[in-house]
Structure formats: structure tokens, C-alpha cells
Amino acid sequence: MRKAxxxxxxxxxxxxxxxxxxxxxxxxxxxxGWVGTNLxxxxxxxxxxxxxxxxxxxLASNDTPTTxxxxxxxxxxxxxxxxxxDALTDNVTGAxxxxxxxPIVEQTEAPKKRARKPAQKAAPAKAPKSGKYPAEISEAVxxxxxxxxTTNGAPGAKQHVAVRAELGKNPTxxxxxKAAGVKSAKQLRSIxxxxxxxxxxxxxxxxxxxxxxxxxxxxxxxxxxxAMIDQAKAK
Length: 235
What we know:
Helix content: 25-40%
Structural class: alpha+beta
Order of helices and strands: EEEEEHHHHHHHH
Number of helices: 8
Radius of gyration: 42 Å
Strand content: 5-15%
Largest sheet: 5 strands, antiparallel
Number of strands: 5
């Protein structure tokens, strides 16, 4: 219906809780719409727009609008038959089933307005990265795998970066051996490939204690240091 066709004091058919019921319009609301009374239950309902109303109906002679909020005793009272309302109910139900109309749900409270989210600015396009780590680290990973003699459980780029950060920038072969606590690169390489004695392996413990990562200890640490020495000599 249109707003111009609606009058206060009239009785209209409206869809409430999946049922077509009679609603008496009591008065207009200052914010728009009407406040009405569900004649089947006596409860107040809010009619926000005229679109909720399906048409005006005539009350039977023994029906009178009431604003009593107490629900009728359904065990002893039965709704008064109203042929006009029954016919209108069939028409509206058929329209809903065909998709020509939408069901209306009773609203006893004003719906909360959703706060508008500020428009998000488009993020600037990022230049594609060639890789997460520089080529020097990738090469060190390869050299460490060769020094260790196996790819199973070998340290990765993350461990190489951590060890390099501990030893500082541009370490020399001599400074690397000093940090490792070993005498020669040959001894360090034997620790990496597992051919050294256990006593030699314990030499790395002071340096290994600075890392929480298990892949920065023992043979793994030795293989990382061997790769660093090989790269330092190649420069």
C-alpha cells in the first residue's frame, strides 16, 4: 500500500510472524510509520512503512480494537471468523509462494542502524619480489648442504641469516674459525660431515648456545660456518 491510502484508526491485514493478522493503527510515530495493535494477541506492533500493510479490512460487529497488552487465553478463546480476512490471507499467501511478495516479520524494536565504514583506500601496488632471501643466502644454503653431505634436516635460509647476524658483517675465515672455537676449516668441515670426534663437536657449544633454533647447533651450525668460509674466500 501507499502512505496516502493509510489512515489512523483503520484495521489492516499485515504479515506478522509468518501469519496474516489484523492490525489496528492506533497513531502515527513522530519518526515515521505507525504504532498499531495486533487484534489477535493484543500486543503493540510497529509498522515502519505502508508497504507492510496488505489492505484495509472491515471489522466484524463483535470485534473492537483493543490496546490491552495481556494475551488472550488461547485455551478458552477462539478467533472470530472473518471471511474477508480469510480471502485476503489466501491471496497474500499465494503471492508470497509465487515470489510476487516478500514475508514481513514483526518488529517490536527499531532496527539498529549500522555504522558506515569509511571507504578504504586502495593499497599501492607492490613491486614483485624476486625472492625472500638474497642470492648470497641461497648459495650459502647450497654450500652448507654439500658440506653436511645430506639434504635431510639441513639448515635453511632462516638459520643462515641468524648466524650471519651473530657474527657481524663481512666476517673473515679467521674470525669465523675464532667464533666457532676450532683451529682450522678442515676440522670444521669434518664436524659438518660427521667424520670428526665427539670432542670436536663440543667445541661449537658456546656459539650454539646463542641460538634457540635446533638447526643452528651441532653439525648444522658447522655446515653454515663452512659455507660462510667458502663464500668469504671466493670474494
